[in-house]
Amino acid sequence: MIRTSNRWLWQAVFVVIMxxxxxxxxQASQSINYNWQWHRxxxxxxxxxxxxxxxxxxGTVQINADNSITINLDYSNVPQxxxxxxxxLVQQGDLVFEGDVVASSNQWTIGPVTLGxxxxxxxxxxxxxxxxxxxxxxxxxxxxxxxxxxxxAFLYVEIIRGTPxxxxxxxxxxxxxxIFELERFTAGVVALSIFTGAYIAExxxxxxxxxPPGQMEAARSLGMSYPKAMMYVILPQAFKRTLPPMAGxxxxxxxxxxxxxxxxxxxxxxxxxxxISGSFATFEVWFVVAGLYLLLTTSLSWAVQRIEKRLAxxx
Length: 315
Hints:
Blueprint: H1 4-31, H2 42-45, E1 46-47, E2 51-54, E3 59-63, E4 69-73, E5 80-82, E6 87-88, E7 95-96, E8 101-105, E9 109-110, H3 112-142, H4 147-161, H5 165-180, H6 184-209, H7 213-221, H8 226-256, H9 268-279, H10 282-313
Antiparallel strand pairs: 1-9, 2-8, 3-4, 3-7, 4-5, 6-8
């Protein structure tokens, strides 16, 4: 056991190391003479720019009793109506010209980076769901005594693990997508599910084989069929043992989802590239994108740790 005084000492050492790292990063950023503009990134996350109401033509302003604005246009018999707003920039009888701002309304809209985060979250959750199902089926087939199912699962695992994910995404989108008329999002989910399912299959296989054979023999001696013994005796024990590597694989899936941007899915990575092309805030945007990915993976890691503690307390 580490004594309390030593624990505080090591905590202080950690703080000093982090301070030195932050100082080093700051000095490095100063050496490249980069003008940091974090304020330019915020509108791409949540845009709070007021909505402007512009005159549709030349005319005269009329302020009504209910405080709404009417613009009597010179070249149209139909006046322009602005019923609700938050700030008025004109007065009764003012002359306005086409394009002039006459009022504004406070609002907020979701920026492209936030929309990209939502797409990444959605494609990751769907891929996780199907990858677990596919991995469970392939894992059970890997330990099967039937040569056909065992060989099929082995072939699936080896092919998928032996080829890059980027190549698989292209094959699914351009080949399978053309045959089955898959949309970009669906093709991305299929590719990620197939890729992650192969790794989950090996994790499940290793977890099942780590359970002593006596567990299955005891369950069968009690009259359980093989599927029931696997479902109620073997898999629950294997699940506890495979949870840490499973969590690592699921976290990897969230990060690998950034590759679907190559088939024009506007996920978090592609949204970041589009924002950079319009704002030229290269470093700021990529730091924000990295932070959002870190938020997703940290949340998943925290949830898995909570599950581990609950399962450990149930033993």
